Amino acid sequence: MVAFTGSFSIWHWLIVLAVVLILFGGGGKIPKLMKDLGSGITQFKRGMKEEDKSEGEEEDDGEKPALNRDETSTAQSEKVDEDKKQKAANG
Predict the structure, then answer these.
(1) What is the pTM of this model?
(2) Interval 10-38: pLDDT, tens
(3) For a disulfide at 25, which of 18, 21, 46, 72, Cβ 3.0-4.6 Å?
């Protein structure tokens, strides 16, 4: 008997595996497997995002938090007001 592992590619084995799963596993198990695979990928992506956020928080601990637009515009307008008051007082 000759072993066929050398003559079949990975695609042949995947097709054979799919046929065997359909025949012996039933049609309902494959969608369940795909759903589990999809939810696993989703959980992995969430974990990566949470890891990135936690690393970002550790790096920002020693730095001053960035101002949002409203705070920036308020700070700039206060500085302009102070400059005008100083110019008026001086001159």
Answers:
(1) 0.36
(2) 999 999 988 887 777 776 777 888 899 99
(3) 21
